[in-house]
Amino acid sequence: MIAFLGSQGLPTGTMIDSWKVVASLGSGGFGAVQKVEKNGRLYALKIALLPEGSPDEKKTHARTLRELLCLLLMDHPNIVRVVAHGRWPDETGGHLYLVLEYVEGWTLAHWIERIHPTALEIIRVFVKTAAAISYMHSRGVFHRDLKLTNVLIRKSNGEPVIIDFGAADFAQAPELTDAGLPPGTERYRAPEANRWWYANKKKPKARYDFRVTDELFAFGVMLHDALTDPRPTEDRQRSAINSILVAPRDPQARNPRIPDALASLVRRLLAKDPAKRSENFEAVRRELAELLEHQGAEYRVSIHSPSAQVSESERAEGSPRPLPSVDSSAKLRWRWRKWLVVGGAVGAAALAAVAASTLGWDRPEEFAAAAPPAHSPSSTNPESPPPASVPAKAPATETAPGATVTVSIQKESNVKMQKGALTPQKPPKFANEAERLKWCKAIGLGTVLAVNAGCPGAQVKPERGDCPADAVKAMEEHGLRWRDQVVFTLGSDIKKGMLSPPLKSGRVEATVVQRGSGSMGTPNLPLGTRLFGELWILKEDPASARLRFYRAQLPNGPEFPVCIVSGSHGHLAIMEREPNGAIRTGPAPTGTVILDSWP
User: Fold this and answer.
1) Is the pLDDT of residue 102 over 90?
2) How confident is the model at residue 444 (pLDDT cuts 50, 70, 90)?
3) Which of 18, 44, 74, 78 could cross-link to 100 by cystine, CB 3.0-4.6 Å?
4) Residue 262 host element (H or E)
5) Which amino acids are annotated as binding site, given as ranges?
6) Rg of the chain, C-alpha, whole Å
7) Residue 477: which pLDDT band, with cuts at 50, 70 and 90?
8) Of the candidates 314, 300, 272, 321, which has an alpha carbon nearest to the alpha carbon of residue 113?
C-alpha cells in the first residue's frame, strides 16, 4: 500500500478504478482533491492522504469515512453530492477515496471580486446557503468549517454549493479530535469557543460542545467579509472578529454601502453573546428572504466599488490605474489638502470685500490673499473677466510650476506661493474674541487668512480605507504586528507628567518614549523613533480627537510607512481645550499598530 502521496495527489493520467486523473484541484491536511474524468464527464475525486510526518494513518482514513457518511445523509441542490467511493489501489488496504460532483465555478471569495455583486445578489446567494445549512442541521450534520472558500458559485446558474466536509461531524459520531476544539478556521471560530479554550486548555480530556450558535457565527463572518472586504482572496492579515475582549468594528463603518437592515443582521450574527444571535438558520433564511423583496436603491448598486476590487499588482500589470476612491492613501490626501488651501487663498480676495462690508471696515489693505490670473485655467470661459476684487489692470503672468509668484492686492498686501505653500500677511488685530469669530465667519472657513487667525477649521473627518500594502509590508519587516502597542509623546516631558503642548488639527509629530506590549509581542520600535501623522479635532467629539501616524523614522535615519492609530480605535483623549480651539492631551498616549483598515 502507498503510505504517503505527494502534496498535489496523484500525477495526471493515473487511473483510479475507472476514473482518470486529469488535473489537481488542491490538497489539505487529510486529503488531495483531483479533477477526474469518466465517460466524457468531469468529477472531483478526494483521496485520503496521510499528512507528511503523521504516524496516524487510521485517523486520516477515519476522517474521510466520516465525510462520506455526512454526505450520504444529505441530498440537497446546494450541497455537493457524492457519486461513488472506494479504496485504491486495492479494496482492502488502499486509500479511501470519494467521487463528488464537479462544480464548474468560482469560490464565493473569487465571485465577489469578479462579479462586483449588488447587495441583492449577495443576499440571493446567502439565502440559499442558509437554507442548505438549515437542511444540513435537520439531518444532524455540522459543517464546522464554513467560510468563503468552502462555497462555490456555479458559472452556469449562479447557484451556491457548499463543499469540503472534511471537518464535518454528525450526531452520535465517534470523537476523532485530539485537541479540545474541533478542526476549523480560526477567523470563523465563535468567541465562546475561544473563551472555552482559555478556560480549559490545561484539561487534556475536555472537549468543546459545538453548537448551532457556532455555525451561525461562522455564517455571520462569511456575510461580514462578503460585504466589507472588496478583495477577500488576498493573502493578508485581517482584523479579528471573534475577540473575546474587543467588539468587532461595525460593518457600516467599514463599508457605508451596506444597507441598514443587512448590517443589522450581521451585527446580530456576530454578537459575542450566543443567546443574542438568530435562533437558527431557518430564521436567518426567512430574514434574508424578506430582504430580497426590498425595493431600495441601495440594494441595487455594487456593494463594493469595482475599482477598489483591483489589487495593486493587477493595476501594475494591466491597464491604467482607475481613479482613486475615498479609500485613497495618505499621500493623496496630503495632495488634495494642499490644493484646498491654495483654493481657499484664491477666494480670499473676494471674501475680503464681503468681510469689509460685513464689519464696516473701510481699509481693505488689511486683507491679503492670492488672486487667480485674469485667464485662470479653471475658468469655464477663458475670456471671462477677472474677479471684481482684483483690479482689471493687473496683468496675467505665465509661471512655471513650482515658481514663486507674488500677487499684489491694493497697497503692499501680498501672498507668496512656492510649491503649494502659502505665507500670508497677518490678519488684523481684534478687540475681543467675538469680533475675531465674526471676522472668521465673514472671510470664510478654510482660507489661509482664517487659518492664520486661528479660525475654527472645517470639521473634516478622517477618511476610511485600507492600510496601504507597502505600509503592511514595511511594518512586518520591522517586527510590527497587529495590535502591538507603542507609547509616544507629543512634546511634553513624560517624567514631569505634564500635558502636551497645545495641538491643532493638521500634521503632528511624536516620539516613541517607551516600548509597549501587544497581542502578539513587543513592537520593534526603538526609543526615540519619530512618528509623523495627522490630527483631527472634531466638534461632535468633545472628549477625544482622532490621530493617525503614516510614517516612522528610526533614530539612525531610515524612514518607512506605517499604520498606527492612537488608542485602540484612533481616539486621542482630550485633557484640556484652549480658547482658540487647540487641545492638550496626556503626557504619554499609546498607539496601536493596524494591518487592515483604518478605524
Assistant:
1) yes
2) very low
3) 44
4) helix 260-269
5) 46
6) 31
7) confident
8) 314
Write out the three cell numbers for 107: 469560490
Q: How far apart are the first and last CA of the chain?
A: 55
Could you tell me which residue, 5 or 9, shows the higher pLDDT?
A: 9
**Contact status, residue 344 vs residue 447, Cβ threshold 8 Å:** yes
Contact 140, 181 (CB under 8 A): no
Average pLDDT over residues 560-581: 82
Residue-level pLDDT at 361: 38
- Residues at the annotated binding site for ATP? 46
Nearest to 243 by CA among 10, 519, 44, 58: 519
DSSP 503: B
Place of cell 483623549: 573
Q: What DSSP letter does each residue of 330-362 carry, written as one string?
A: HHHHHHHHHHHHHHHHHHHHHHHHHHHHHHT--
Q: Mind listing the pLDDT tens digit for each residue in 117-144?
A: 999 999 999 999 999 999 999 999 999 9
Q: Where is average pLDDT lowest: 129-138, 302-311, 395-404?
A: 395-404
80, amino acid identity: V
Question: Which domains are seen in the chain, by residue range?
Answer: 1-102 (3.30.200.20), 105-311 (1.10.510.10), 332-378+401-452 (no CATH), 469-593 (2.40.128.260)
Q: Is the pLDDT of residue 20 over 90?
A: yes
Q: Is the per-residue pLDDT at 402 higher than 70?
A: no
pLDDT digits (tens, 9 = 90+) for 146-198: 999 999 999 999 999 999 998 898 876 666 666 788 888 889 999 999 899 88
Rounded Cα gap, residues 416 and 425, in angstroms? 9
Q: Show Cβ contacts of residue 322 under 8 Å, excluding neighbours closer than 6 positions.
A: 306, 307, 310, 315
Q: How far apart are CA 457 and CA 270, in angstroms?
A: 38
Q: HSE on the CB side for 150, CA within 13 Å? A: 20
* Residues whose CB is less than 8 angstroms from the CB of residue 480 and which lie 6 or more positions away in sequence, other chains included: 523, 524, 525, 562, 593
Query: Alpha helices of 381-447 — where are they, by DSSP H?
Result: 433-443
Beta carbons of 212 and 280 less than 8 angstroms apart? yes
CB 124 within 8 A of CB 107: no
Q: Provide the pLDDT for residue 253.
A: 92
CB 343 within 8 A of CB 417: no
Q: Which three cell numbers stand for residue 139?
A: 439531518
Number of H helices, E strands in the chain: 13, 22
Residue 103 DSSP symbol? -
Give the three-class secondary structure for 114: helix
